[in-house]
From TrEMBL:
Protein name according to UniProt: MFS transporter
InterPro entries recorded: MFS (IPR011701), MFS_trans_sf (IPR036259)
Main location: membrane
UniProt topology in membrane: Multi-pass membrane protein
Species whose genome carries this gene: Paenibacillus taichungensis
Amino acid sequence: MTVVSNEPNPSSISSNSGSKSLWTNFRFMRMFIAYSLATFGDWFDALAIQIMVAYRWGADPLIIALIPVCMAVPGIVLGSVAGALADRLHKVKIMMICDVITVVLTVAILFAPSAAWLLPLLALRALMGVFHVPAQQALTRQVVAEEHLFQASSLNGFVNQCSKVAGPLLGAVIVAVFSPQVCILINACTRLLSGAVLWPLRRLTENPESSSSDGSPLETGETTESLFSQWQKGWRFIQSSRILLSTMLFGCFGLMAILMIDYQFTTLFREIKPGNEALIGWLGSSAGAGAVVIILLLNRLPRIGYGWGLGGGYLLIGAGIAALGWVSSQTSEFWIIIWGLCIGVGNGLFMVTLNYLLQKETPPAYVGRVFGIQNSLSSVVLVVAPLAGGALIRSVGPSPTFQYIGMATLAIGLAGMLLQRILWVGKQAHPVESSGELGQKSVRQP
């Protein structure tokens, strides 16, 4: 892959932040390419690992269920700490180190003889993502101009949704022609390329005023503030910000409802259309297509209202889930695709708005900690919600569960839209800080 080499003043973080177009911001484009490679690789071998465990090893269903749990635990334990480190240390170096360790762990997965070895390796690899994401988001906040933040968030969301669709599909082709091990090896190669793309940014100098809330530098060896103190400040900052606190709580409630049935679509289709195993593929593809389409449309907008984006996203997701709960054996597959598109549009709308809000409403000094804390809370929900959903399905059945969860999610979304002036509009308790590289104050209105 050809990497642009005509970057002006590569050691300064501010030279490209005021570019007229995001596409001429060479630092962001390097980060975007690296993020695209890493995200595609993650989804590329996700299906291969499941096939290897379920079919090649014949593992017990409990072992298979432990895979997402092992991948969520690192985020629960170290998500907020990783965010504090992202605000404290050199962000590009964190990302590069994570890429290198991910390559090593991915290669090690190739030689894992059993699930007893695989699960710890998957947990360690997920841990690298826990450290990588806050660093990437914090650096994005510094190198991207304020007016381009929404476009940057939508581009990252677009890549993530495309990877969710294209990665497993291409991975399935590779598995059919070759083997799951080839998919895992390709993931290792994409991560290696990701680190190589970031390599020219390794000497990027961060502005001290962009890295510390009190004006003191946060580079290693220069700060007198402890990591624990910075970790505490991150939590206090969220508690003092009504917009961020509302977003975290609102997001967790909606995510809890969605994840209760996220792993149960096969259970639903097995009951209502037992002879059509391809339905889950149609649903996943249509949801991915819906997310991609809405993100492309959002990318043409300068911004979006928080209540409409977050509340509207949950409303559409809830409507799609509830509608699937009323699907019967006589329902045409056409409606499965329609409801999948509805869920995908809602998901894309919510995720882009969420990332944009966390970037926009957080001063650069706190971006890593805010995203780290958000990752920790999401990981807790990721472990608890599927277990609760499974218990509910066993109690009342798949179709009623989808109806109840869908209506609950729809109600949460509607509440977000109706109460948006209370949740996301108004002055914040924390002081407005300079965004450093932009030399301007952050606007606290959605």
